[in-house]
Amino acid sequence: MSKSFWGGLIAIALLGGPAVAADMPVKALPPPLPVVVYTWTGCYVGANGGGLWARKNWTDADTLSTTLGRPLEDHTTSGGMAGGQIGCDYQTGRWVFGIEGSYDWADSSATSNNLIFTNVSGTSDVTALGTITGRVGFTIVEQALIYVRGGVAFERDRYNTTNLTTTLPLLTASQDRTGGIIGIGFEYLVLKNLSLFAEYDYADMGTSNVNFLSTDGRNFTTTYSIRERKDIFKVGLNWRFNWAQPVVAKY
Q1: How many C-beta atoms surround the C-beta of residue 107 within 10 A?
Q2: Which one of 44, 55, 97, 107 is CB 3.0 to 4.6 Å from 79, fit for a cystine?
Q3: In terms of Cα–Cα distance, which of 109, 225, 104 is closest to 153?
Q4: What tens digit of pLDDT does each residue of 175-193 get?
Q5: Is the Cβ–Cβ distance between 161 and 123 less than 8 Å?
Q6: What is the 3-state secondary structure (H, E, C) of the chain?
Q7: CA atoms within 13 A on the CB side of 81
């Protein structure tokens, strides 16, 4: 074959190569992966459980009694609690402001011997606890929040006394009482809509007069002044409805 043939073939290859490459389909780049920006703005519902310890001091407040003003019982209840909460938060910058209501069923009780009448025991039992509080938090990182809270606590109590000699009940009473509560906690967004938290609270339920009624049908009544302060520790989770949560594409 002549040199002109080979020269023409090489020229066709050189000139046609780019044209063929230009006609080949180009593989599309994958779309950018979305990056979720966590936010605390929104409302939530959740569940919790923990422990409750209430210091109860009983003092005789019956003006007809010879022991008026003297302490009768001094004990600390202990036991578990479980319930739920609902609330809303608003985040601005790294600060989070919110309001929350909670209700827990409790079984925290204690019994001690009467400080004056040694053959009598007294029992205190906290059966329920509710709170309405506001809170202020600061995001350490996007998903981690430390916060303080404060507000009002509501409680349901039961009391009774027993004759230790006969083991028969003597007096019984129940009461709803109100006090103040403050606390500190930590909450973490494990998912954009799910958070876990741990919290410690201190409640001062003040001093309240409680009317006791005899259990033997005589309708005998007496009044005790009961002072209460309590410690609460609980852990829980919240399902968060973050309606305004932004999503940013990562390029």
Answers
A1: 15
A2: 107
A3: 104
A4: 999 999 999 999 999 998 9
A5: yes
A6: CCHHHHHHHHHHHHHHHHHHHHHCCCCCCCCCCEEECCCCCEEEEEEEEEEEEEEEEEEECCCCCCCCCCEEEEEEEEEEEEEEEEEEEEEECCEEEEEEEEEEEEEEEEEEECCCCCCEEEEEEEEEEEEEEEEEEEEEECCEEEEEEEEEEEEEEEEEEEECCCCCEEEEEEEEEEEEEEEEEEEEEEECCEEEEEEEEEEEEEEEEEEEEECCCCCCEEEEEEEEEEEEEEEEEEEEECCCCCEEECC
A7: 32
Reported as a single tens digit per residue, the pLDDT across 97-148 is 999 999 999 999 999 999 999 899 999 999 999 999 999 999 999 999 999 9
Judging by DSSP bridges, how do beta strands 144-163 and 120-141 pair with one another? Answer: antiparallel
Per-residue tokens: 54? 């209430």
Residue in 176, 136, 179 with CA at minimum distance from that of residue 159:
176
CB atoms within 10 A of CB 101: 13
Identify whether the C-beta of residue 119 lies closer than 8 Å to the C-beta of residue 127.
Answer: no
Mean pLDDT of 1-14: 52
How far apart are alpha carbons 183 and 140 in whole angstroms? 18
* CA distances from residue 237 to 28, 29, 84, 146 in whole angstroms, order as listed: 43, 40, 9, 15
Site of tokens 């006090």: 179
Q: Could you report how far apart the first and last alpha carbons of the chain are, in Å? A: 56
**Residue matched to tokens 């002549």:** 2
User: pLDDT tens-digit profile of 55-74?
Assistant: 999 999 999 899 999 999 99
**Nearest-angstrom CA–CA distance, 59 and 209:** 9
The CA distance from 73 to 226, in Å, is 9
